[in-house]
Each structure stands twice: as C-alpha cells, then as structure tokens.
Amino acid sequence: MSANTMKAIRLHEFGGPEVLRYEDVPVPELKPGHVLVRVHAVGLNPPDWYLRDGMPGIPPELRPPVSFPVIPGSDVSGVVVGVAADVDRFSVGDEVFGMLRFPSFDGRAYAEYVAAPASDLARKPAGVDHVHAAGVAMSGLTAWQHLVELGHDHPNPLQEAQHRPVPLDAGMTVLVNGAAGGVGHLGLQIAKWKGARVIAVASGAHEQFLRDLGADEFVDYTRTRPEEAVRDVDLVFDTVGGPGSSRFLRTLKRGGALCYVFVAAYDSAEVARLGVTTSGTQVRSNGPQLEEFGDLLGKGVLRVAIDSTFPLADARKAHERAARGHIEGKIVLTAV
Q: Which candidate among 183, 201, 221, 333 keeps its CA 20 to 30 Å from the CA of 215?
C-alpha cells in the first residue's frame, strides 16, 4: 500500500454482509470546505445495512442514487491531517468526530481516511476516546433533533408539518421504546438531563443497564405489554417504530405526543379521539449541535455505551452482530 492508497470497505453490489469487501483504494482528495481525517473509529448505524441491502424499506422515489463501488458509513472519529484553504474551524492535529453528509448515503466512513465537510464535524472531547466518540454522532444527533432542537429547516418527506421537539422539564413523564439501543439509551439520558421521569422499554436482559443510566421505571416488553402497563405519559420517544408503534398511543395522556424515529403509520381517527399528536424527523448532519452534545459527553452528563468493537477489516462480522439484534449501545469499527 502506497502513501496515496488506503484500506476501505466497499460495496460492488447489494446483498448481505458477505458483499462488504476490504480493499485498497485511493486516499480521497481534499476539496474546498473539507478536512482530511485519519479515521480512528467508525460507528455503525442502521442506514449502513439499509444501503448494503439496497434500501428495500425506503420508497423508491426517496432512495438516493448509488454508484458502485461505494464506501458505506457516516460516523467517524479521528485526527485532522489536512485542511482546505477556506476552512478556519480546524487545524492539523485536531481530534474530531462527526456524522458525514447525512441523509445522503455518501459518508464514505468505512475507511482509513475520509474527506469530511468541516460543517459536519465537532471537536472530540478530550476525555472521550475515539471509539466512544465514533459511536455517538448519528444516534446522539437523532435523539437531540427529536427531543431538544431540530436544528434545520429541511422538510420531512414523510410528513407535512415540520417536527417540533416537545419541551422537556421536570414535571414530565417520558417513555422510551427501544431504550437499550443506540438512539434509545442516549434519548433516555437526555430526558433525565432535562429532569423528566423516564420509563424504559426493552427486553429484560437490559434492565440493569438502563436503570444505571437513570431509568425510573422499566418494562420488559417480552413479559408485559407496555400499552397495558403504562398510562398518562407526556411523551413517547419510539426508537423502534414500524407497525407496532401505534400501540403506544394508548399510553399517552390527552395532549401528549408520540415522537418516532423510524417510519410508522398511525390511524388519524384514533389519534384525534385520544387527543394526542405524532411527529418525526429525518436526522441531518450538524457540527454545532455535536459540539453541544460533545460538551455534555466531556462533562460526564451523557455517556455512550459500546456493545462491541471490530477491526475495520472485519466489517462483515460487525454487520452480522447487528443482524442478531438486542444491541446494547453501539457497534464500532476500529481503523487504527
């Protein structure tokens, strides 16, 4: 491998984890507005396997074009080794983390080097290592933009109205579904940081983990139906979505809201009868918001849990781990 090449994971076709190839590719060129980052760690996210699979769950009209070969991934943490002339936010040697070019599928993060838009990056907190920083970007921004501040004015192609986060305060009760996952365990902590009482819904194996993060109440969905056990919730943060999401409408008090991360359908008549609202948004790259989130990480107010780590060369094994489910926190690839 020469100074102008690097190792990266590429897709030459859609398929299962076996289509992830570890190859020599050119180091990306530095463009205006970008910095070149020596990647130390890469966080895995559901869009990574959506892309690998060919995005079957995304309506055809909303699927971004893909030209093979393509390097997947969006979340990175690493060290700046090159800076474009028009960038003044970062310098060579800065440790940074970020979610790159999302909601496109053009992050190109599964690599030893990545040319990253400076606007998508934040300085990595000194007390947080690269593995944990890489694990936080998409999950942290997803929770932040749903619960704290949207941070953009792009329309959501899946709903007419712009999402508006429900202000969280000490008098509220928040239910987090999928609380042990990447987005869920950070959303739980954000709600606690804001003073809310939090009910965590997950499988029983994650109870102690979630109570250690601050959950006030725990519901094991494998033994108890949350919609039968919980009432008068102010906000449901559903990080699972899908057909089962509508059952959480019954846990809300009148005037309450259900905030969903993944596509879900709700009966408009039931929503109106119950006097509640539903809303979601599409997470977008945002370096300044990551600076805020990183400050909370650095102070220990929030923390990211790591489910498992794999070398970059073993991306296939990491995707196989993701496919088994019941993830506690984040899966991360290490590139150094």
A: 333
Would you tell me which CATH number, out of the four given (3.40.50.2000, 3.40.50.11540, 3.80.10.10, 3.90.180.10), belongs to the domain 5-138+287-334?
Answer: 3.90.180.10
**Look-up of token digits 């400076």:** 118
- DSSP at 335: -
> What is the C-alpha separation between 279 and 213, in angstroms, rounded?
26
Where are the domain boundaries for CATH 3.40.50.720 in the chain? 164-280
String of DSSP letters for 30-45? P-TTEEEEEEEEEE--
Containing H/E element for 316? helix 315-324
Question: Per-residue pLDDT tens for 252-288?
Answer: 999 999 999 987 889 999 999 999 999 999 999 999 9
The CATH number of the domain covering residues in 164-280: 3.40.50.720
Residue with tokens 């809310």: 196
| DSSP 8-state assignment for residue 302 | S
Which residue type sits at 201? Answer: V
Structure-derived torsion over alpha carbons of residues 288, 289, 291, 292, reported in degrees to the nearest 10: 130
**Burial group, residue 67, by CB count within 10 angstroms (0-12, 13-18, 19+):** exposed
Check if the beta carbon of residue 78 is closer than 8 Å to that of residue 152: no
Give φ, ψ of 260 to 5 degrees.
-115, 145
And the tokens for 47?
Answer: 């869009």
Sequence-distant (6+) residues with CB within 8 A of 132 are 297, 303, 304, 306
Give the DSSP letter of residue 57.
Answer: T
Q: Find out whether 313 and 195 touch, Cβ atoms under 8 Å.
A: no
- Every domain of the chain with CATH number 3.90.180.10 lies at 5-138+287-334
pLDDT at 62: 77
pLDDT for 112-156, tens place per residue? 999 999 999 999 999 999 999 999 999 999 999 999 999 888 877
